[in-house]
Specification:
This protein is an all-alpha fold. The chain contains 12 helices and no strands.
Amino acid sequence: MAVLGIVGLLSGFLLGSVYVSGSIILSLLLFYIPPWLMGTHVPMVDITIIVGFQAVIAALIVLPFRWFDMHWSLLRIILVPAVLASLGGGLWLRIIPTDVIVGLLGAVTLGAVFLTIWPPHFYDFGGHSTSRLLLLAFMGVLVGFFGGTLGLGGGFILVPVLRSYGVSLHHSISNALIAGGLITFVGLIAKLPHHLVPWPIILVVGLSSALGTFLGSYSAQRIPTVWLRYLVLGGMCIASVKIWIGFL
């Protein structure tokens, strides 16, 4: 359990300090750390549930402080298709093979790296009201699907989208955490009746992740973290390639 606590603390710290999706980092850590070191084997389905709870906990931490900073004009277009896709993704997880889940994790990780380093200018494609509506709805479907199946909050998609519409980085992260927590929570509702929930692991990882997020946010305001950010992104890229080599 000590190793699990360190894993949660590290993923939360990186989320708070370098603004990289903590759920993706937590997924990779739980996936790659050998069972004998963690003291337990964590199946891939359990990993999706654990990281889903992490996303919900992060949203609850941020919600009281950032409720009035929410950009509902953008998020309301995203949330409806995202919630529906998350519900469908959570139900679909019952029949999806584990290998496919692992392949999705590798693809999402690599996509998160590219979107973080080279964020697309969504506003250029969504200036007209109709195309803007369709683009945001499509982004919502993607976020909801990954939230329902993998338990990922969707920050790797929501942050670039919000940034492209002029929302500050700090507010984009807060909005993504809160919206991602809501979306992932719906996916968890669809999963929980069909899977045994690893509550001891969730408790350890959740509490340590919350502490890590606070410490990361505190340090990010006082020390430059740009090199740490690219180091983490490089590690994510290597991990995604390793996943795909094993998947193929």
